[in-house]
Amino acid sequence: AQSVTQLGSHVSVSEGALVLLRCNYSSSVPPYLFWYVQYPNQGLQLLLKYTSAATLVKGINGFEAEFKKSETSFHLTKPSAHMSDAAEYFCAVSGTGGYNKLIFGAGTRLAVHP
Amino acid sequence: DADVTQTPRNRITKTGKRIMLECSQTKGHDRMYWYRQDPGLGLRLIYYSFDVKDINKGEISDGYSVSRQAQAKFSLSLESAIPNQTALYFCATSDSGQGKRYTFGSGTRLTVV
Asked: How high does pLDDT run on average in chain B?
């Protein structure tokens, strides 16, 4: 079985500061890992995904995440926060086999202050 | 047109009523999923289908049923709606090539009063 734990339901940063959103996974099989973003009153948008290629994954809007097997982590970072980054972020895990489903974490709401 | 279309977008219904949420896709994907989103709980899987003849319960299937009418259509029903089923519901699809590509609908906001 797979699961995801997102540390911190709310994160607040100043504009221009580093964004770090934490995600740890549990999986008995090699995982695929995803980060999604949800802006207010909108659906889900894929930020980036790890599918067993490079461990450092670059996504849209300047975000990136690093897969660390030894730490079972897939933390999301952005060097400099922008006001438009304020949203809810979801980490998700899926197995790599033929029959798998996407399992989400509880989400982290990011606030960006001037 | 959207790849994954959910109808209705918003719905208010009364306790005890039967309601159906519909999902259709033009992605040609075999796999379809229903999730519900609640504040602080993320998205939780209700039901999923890997092909037309394959239906599986997710982690929170109680009180829900589904129908996979065709490859492109996957409906979620609440037989007797209750207030704690008030949530945002998402339909999603994925390809069958190890499931790396998921496409989500825009969501249905359901309120049960």
From this structure: 94
Peptide bond into B83 cis (omega under 30): no
Whether A90 and B98 lie within 8 Å, measured CB to CB: no
Query: Is any Cβ of chain B less than 8 angstroms from the Cβ of A23?
Result: no
Q: A2 with A31: CB under 8 angstroms?
A: yes
Q: Half-sphere exposure of residue A47, counting CA atoms within 13 Å on the CB side?
A: 27
User: Which string of DSSP letters, residue by residue, matches A66-114?
Assistant: EEEGGGTEEEEEESS--GGG-EEEEEEEEESSSS---EE---EEEEEE-
Lowest mean pLDDT among A28-32, B13-17, B66-70, B71-75: A28-32
Name which of B44, B102, B108 to mutate to probe chain A: the one with the most chain A Cβ atoms within 10 A of its Cβ: B102
Residue A82 scores a pLDDT above 90: yes
Q: Which residues on chain A are in Cβ contact (under 8 Å) with B43?
A: 44, 90, 92, 104
Instruction: Evaluate if residue B26 carries a pLDDT over 60.
Output: yes
